[in-house]
């Protein structure tokens, strides 16, 4: 067959959700992958990871057939079995657990390995139809969501394409050069056409910081203090838009009085920045009407993450930047979509009386912590899709301990033999996004994009939706979605949402869902009954965990450095990986090299650590060994380990999340991946 480019969408857990064109060179084989040039956000630009997707989809390491454990747990001993036997075994284990301990002893676990609404949501439909234990998905965006919601009441913001019309883009807590390359497309346009400045605020010199006009390298977990000091200057110097504040915010006078003592001198002691750095940035921000605040997830991945997000989100409120094109800001656009997921996720069967387990506390759940089991039976049967908890969850040694329980049955539906799959009892091969139909919505942009199947499934891989429907039939779960194809569910979802149908979306490829300027910029009011932004949020309404500051402030991080643990560890994303996706491909591994600890040269000298020397990082949860790299682009007392690498890539086979805490971030939970205190010593 002649080669042709077919439209689809990137499924990975990245805010860009790029519209793609994929070259099909045979019914079961792809060639090049490129961005859709006529999509106004993707604009023809995609990351290197996805551009070489042929390496991933056609990898010889893809799982090829169902595998049954044929030795001790974690031994790596497997034997091939057929699909019917595999599905029968899963169903039998689920039914046995239900009969002996109740349906709540079955815990389907999933997350964001695909962001497709049908393939990702199918496991939810099975959960709700059968009354299995529910899941609180906290491991990524819960703290950030709560911090933004606290003030704005909804998760939306200025159209990210407006960055091209900005005079100042503030990249706070993100590294889009590595993690969302399309942001840089629109930044580049603003620089070329308007002479715009790019400021990056981050605890180390990332790829984005390297190309920025200004980099504020603050200590981890001190973003709230910096934000407050900047706003102190904005009020002091007359940059605050008092008319805007009076019209659209609650208690602005109280907020200004609160900031009176949050001076640059105060923040300098907390952040490690100089007073001049804080003053200069505040002056730049205050003088620029068209200032676009692009907030990343890094702000929120500390115990004080929600508080930090709320504090940072106040900046465009104080200056009234929301009133201008190219002004305001964005954290996430999830609130703009009206897609009805009732059918795809079985939301009409949800029973909120059924206990729910916190994903970030998977280790505690599987090892039977009474706080997490909530008076119920232990988890004895699991199906895992779209996630790799043995590597990505906090307190990973405890996660591993839980998976190794002899009374726990674990089935993993995966594309590769991940850390989690290695600990399973049964592994079944999954399709990639190129081998099934799905529908996607952007997180950092505004498009709903359909992704039709491009090639036939590789080997014996099966899509999530099909697997879930087959298990549902075997365990007696009933729901209309189980009898439909993925495309039929997409069609029904679009019609229920009054967004057309699957045929029209397939023809048009995407829907631009961005609201009008006034709605996007909250000019008609914020999403509260009185329409006013909240400087003093009702934190109790957002979650059960207390300890939040009344107004924006420096809330201490959860694990501050001390004499025994003098270093702060940040586990930032690597450029060639996406969480644990792509860390199985040869090119990504070669370009990243190996797990490395970035340490300030003076700290490395004190510890007598030369380039490439093995170094042990540890705390009360455990220790890991990586190789040191002296790096001046990190503050003293801070260590950066980019990842997430497979556990097996570490010197002793123990991954970096063995050191991160599972304690919930207030007010609603979450994982504090960048809030870890450790000691360092030569290994």
UniProtKB/TrEMBL annotation:
Pfam families: Molybdop_Fe4S4, Molybdopterin, Molydop_binding. Coiled coil: none annotated. It comes from the Bacteria. SUPFAM superfamilies: ADC-like, Formate dehydrogenase/DMSO reductase, domains 1-3. GO terms for molecular function: iron-sulfur cluster binding; metal ion binding; molybdopterin cofactor binding; oxidoreductase activity. Keywords: Iron, Iron-sulfur, Metal-binding. Residues 3-61 form the 4Fe-4S Mo/W bis-MGD-type domain. Belongs to the prokaryotic molybdopterin-containing oxidoreductase family. This is Molybdopterin oxidoreductase family protein. It comes from Azospirillum doebereinerae.
């Amino acid at each position: 067959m002649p080669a042709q480019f077919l439209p689809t969408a990137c499924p990975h857990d990245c805010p860009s959700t790029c519209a793609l064109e994929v070259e099909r060179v045979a019914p079961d084989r792809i060639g090049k992958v490129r961005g859709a040039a006529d999509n106004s956000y993707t604009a023809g630009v995609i990351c290197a990871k996805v551009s070489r997707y042929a390496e991933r989809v056609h990898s010889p390491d893809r799982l090829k057939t169902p595998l049954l454990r044929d030795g001790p747990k974690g031994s790596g001993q497997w034997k091939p079995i057929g699909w019917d036997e595999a599905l029968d075994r899963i169903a039998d284990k689920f039914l046995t657990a239900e009969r002996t301990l109740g349906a709540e002893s079955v815990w389907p676990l999933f997350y964001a390995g695909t962001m497709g609404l049908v393939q990702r949501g199918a496991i939810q439909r099975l959960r709700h139809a059968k009354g299995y234990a529910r899941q609180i998905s906290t491991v990524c965006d819960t703290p950030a969501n709560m911090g933004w919601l606290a003030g704005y009441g909804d998760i939306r913001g200025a159209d990210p394409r407006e960055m091209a019309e900005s005079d100042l883009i503030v990249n706070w807590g993100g590294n889009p050069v590595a993690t969302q390359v399309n942001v840089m497309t629109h930044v580049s346009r603003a620089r070329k056409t308007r002479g715009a400045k790019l400021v990056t605020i981050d605890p180390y010199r990332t790829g984005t910081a390297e190309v920025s006009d200004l980099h504020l390298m603050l200590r981890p977990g001190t973003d709230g203090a910096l934000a407050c000091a900047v706003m102190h200057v904005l009020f002091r110097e007359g940059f605050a838009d008092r008319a805007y504040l009076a019209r659209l915010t609650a208690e602005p006078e109280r907020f200004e009085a609160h900031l009176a003592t949050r001076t640059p001198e105060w923040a300098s002691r907390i952040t490690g920045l100089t007073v001049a750095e804080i003053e200069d940035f505040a002056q730049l921000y205050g003088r620029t009407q068209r200032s676009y605040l692009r907030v990343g997830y890094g702000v929120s991945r500390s115990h004080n993450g929600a508080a930090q997000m709320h504090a940072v989100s106040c900046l465009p409120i104080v200056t009234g930047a929301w009133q201008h094109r190219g002004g305001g800001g964005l954290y996430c656009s999830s609130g703009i979509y009206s897609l009805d997921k009732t059918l795809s996720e079985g939301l009409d069967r949800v029973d909120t009386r059924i206990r729910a387990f916190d994903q970030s506390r998977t280790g505690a759940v599987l090892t039977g912590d009474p706080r997490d089991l909530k008076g119920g039976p232990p988890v004895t049967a699991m199906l895992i899709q779209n996630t790799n908890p043995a590597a990505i969850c906090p307190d990973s040694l405890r996660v591993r301990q839980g998976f190794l329980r002899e009374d726990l049955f674990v089935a993993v539906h995966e594309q590769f033999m991940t850390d989690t799959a290695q600990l399973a009892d049964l592994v079944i091969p999954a399709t990639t996004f190129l081998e099934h139909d799905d529908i996607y919505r952007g997180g950092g942009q505004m498009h709903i994009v359909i992704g039709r199947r491009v090639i036939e499934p590789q080997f014996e891989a099966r899509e999530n939706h099909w697997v879930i429907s087959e298990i549902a039939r075997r365990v007696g779960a009933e729901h209309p979605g189980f009898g439909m194809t993925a495309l039929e569910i997409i069609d029904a979802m679009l019609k229920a949402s009054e967004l057309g149908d699957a045929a029209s979306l397939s023809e048009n490829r995407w829907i631009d869902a961005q609201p009008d300027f006034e709605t996007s910029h909250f000019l008609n009011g914020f999403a509260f009954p009185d329409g006013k932004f909240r400087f003093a949020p009702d934190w109790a309404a957002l979650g059960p965990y207390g300890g939040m500051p009344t107004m924006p402030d420096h809330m201490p991080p959860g694990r501050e450095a001390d004499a025994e643990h003098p270093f702060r560890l940040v586990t930032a994303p690597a450029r060639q990986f996406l969480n644990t996706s792509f860390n199985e491909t040869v090119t990504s591994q070669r370009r990243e090299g190996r797990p490395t600890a970035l340490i300030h040269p003076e700290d490395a000298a004190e510890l007598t650590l030369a380039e490439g020397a093995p170094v042990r990082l540890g705390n009360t949860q455990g220790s890991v060994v990586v190789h040191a790299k002296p790096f001046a682009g990190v503050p003293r007392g801070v260590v950066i380990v980019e990842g997430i690498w497979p556990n097996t890539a570490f010197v002793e086979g123990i991954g970096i999340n063995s050191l991160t805490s599972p304690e919930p971030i207030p007010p609603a939970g979450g994982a504090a991946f960048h809030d870890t205190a450790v000691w360092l010593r030569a290994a």
